[in-house]
Structure to design on (81 residues):
């Protein structure tokens, strides 16, 4: 039985990408078995839910930072600075 730790009650550390890959494997197997179409559909729904959760948990992308590289100054060592 899975219990949530009282020291770290929420959120549990779950690798959603691994869960997603496992569900895809299970969905593909269920699709190939007659009579398990509803199971495959339910797994597809679960995969879509994981995709939604991953988008919500992903950090917002930051705009690119403009940068410029300057040529090295010749004859100046790091000890001189």
């Amino acid at each position: 039985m899975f219990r949530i730790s009282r020291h770290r009650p929420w959120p549990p550390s779950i690798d959603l990408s691994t869960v997603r890959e496992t569900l895809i494997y299970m969905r593909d197997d269920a699709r190939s078995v007659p009579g398990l179409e509803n199971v495959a559909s339910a797994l597809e729904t679960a995969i879509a839910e994981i995709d939604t959760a991953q988008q919500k948990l992903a950090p917002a992308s930051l705009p690119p930072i403009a940068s410029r590289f300057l040529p090295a100054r010749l004859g100046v060592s790091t000890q001189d600075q």
Summary: The radius of gyration is 24 Å. Residues 37-57 form the longest helix (21 residues). The chain has a mean pLDDT of 82. The helical segments are 16-31, 37-57.
